[in-house]
Amino acid sequence: MQKVVLDMQNYLMGDAIKMALRNNGDFQVELSQKPEETAGKCYNFAATAVIMEVTGYTPWLLAERMKIRDEVRRTCPHCKIVLLVDENAEKEVAEQVKDAKRDGLIDLFLYGSTSASFLTALMDTL
Predict the structure, then answer these.
(1) Which residues of 38-93 form beta strands (DSSP E)?
(2) 14-26 confidence digits (pLDDT tens)
(3) Which pTM does this prediction carry?
(4) Sheet with 27-31, edge to edge strand ranges
(5) What is the rounded end-to-end Cα distance, in angstroms, of the chain?
(6) Are 24 and 117 in contact (CB under 8 A)?
(7) pLDDT tens digits for 58-91?
(8) Could you tell me the CATH number of the domain that includes residue 54?
(9) Alpha-carbon distances of 80 from 12, 42, 52, 73, 89, rounded to whole Å
(10) Per the structure, how many domains does the chain have?
């Protein structure tokens, strides 16, 4: 069983991802209400992965997500870092996220247009 922490700008989207992971795979999912709590939730929950949404706005900017990633890696070295971005609304941010994966800074990136079944399958392979 994988334990996943979700840190999303939109609570409704986070809840939908939570339900998709639970219904389509063997996942325990915890929502992080505030970005400043995400690393602590990963540690306390013994998360195997964290999914963080990246946007063009604070506190969901890529630079801010990288700071959380650093803290998660320090306290939970085996926790996989996954970034989610809306590739249609945030084209430039999507390119930056893709570059972060290419540079080895994150373990996986997802686009907002990803289907629930594909998201679950990808997360299951981490």
Answers:
(1) 49-54, 80-85
(2) 999 999 999 988 9
(3) 0.94
(4) 27-31, 2-7, 49-54, 80-85, 108-111
(5) 12
(6) yes
(7) 999 999 999 999 999 999 999 999 999 999 999 9
(8) 3.40.50.2300
(9) 23, 10, 11, 9, 25
(10) 1
